[in-house]
Design brief:
Largest sheet: 9 strands, mixed
Shape: globular
Distance between the termini: 28 Å
Keywords: ATP-binding, Cytoplasm, Nucleotide-binding, Nucleotidyltransferase, Transferase, tRNA processing
Subcellular location: Cytoplasm
Number of domains: 1
Helix content: 25-40%
CATH superfamily: DHBP synthase
Strand content: 15-25%
Strand order of the largest sheet: 7-1-2-6-3-5-4-8-9
EC number: 2.7.7.87
Number of helices: 7
Structural class: alpha/beta
Protein name: Threonylcarbamoyl-AMP synthase
Family: Belongs to the SUA5 family. TsaC subfamily.
Number of strands: 9
Length: about 180
């Protein structure tokens, strides 16, 4: 885990298992690392990316403007496979939020991903490990088939076995944007 965290801190892009699929991760504050990840996926920056952490405290600065009801809805689903869109008030770089006024956050309970973010010391970018238009990788061999040696590290373990990707909800309305 320490070696994967060091690779992230050095600007690397890695693959790791999540609750349902394999993900690609990098340091969200490293513009070059995010650009490289987006090129690997053939994903436009405008779409935005998810920030994942095994420590909800990593998101405290982004959650403090929410109402008590909004926080209660989020707290009821975390840690777990629910991603929440919260207003970012320009607290995240545009290469993370894309064209949106919100940022996607997930407090994960996947053992590898949670430990990775804690070892890294903050949230990490996590997006499905697949080039645009391809199915998300559910197994390590698929990650390797998609990306070969273009990644700096491919984690161990397996996904959490969920059949569907993480649910995405809007914190302002509570509305489910993508069922999980």
């Amino acid at each position: 885990m320490a070696s994967a965290a060091r690779i992230l801190a050095a600007g690397g892009v890695i693959a790791h298992p999540t609750e349902s699929v394999w993900g690609l991760a990098c340091d969200p504050n490293n513009r070059d690392a995010v650009a490289r990840l987006l090129r690997l996926k053939n994903r436009p920056m405008e779409k935005g990316l998810i920030l994942v952490s095994g420590n909800a405290g990593h998101f405290s600065g982004l959650l403090h403007n929410l109402s008590g009801d909004q926080r209660a809805r989020i707290d009821a689903t975390w840690p777990g496979p629910v991603t929440w869109l919260v207003p970012h008030f320009d607290q995240v770089p545009p290469w993370i939020s894309g064209i949106h006024h919100s940022v996607a956050l997930r407090h994960t309970n996947h053992p590898f991903t949670a430990a990775l973010s804690r070892a890294f010391g903050g949230p990490i970018v996590s997006t499905s490990a697949n080039p645009g238009g391809c199915q998300p990788a559910r197994h390590k061999f698929q990650v390797l088939r998609y990306f070969g040696n273009a990644l700096d590290f491919v984690g161990g373990g397996s996904t959490g076995g969920r059949a569907s990707p993480s649910e995405i909800r809007d914190a302002a309305s509570g509305r489910v944007l993508r069922a999980g």
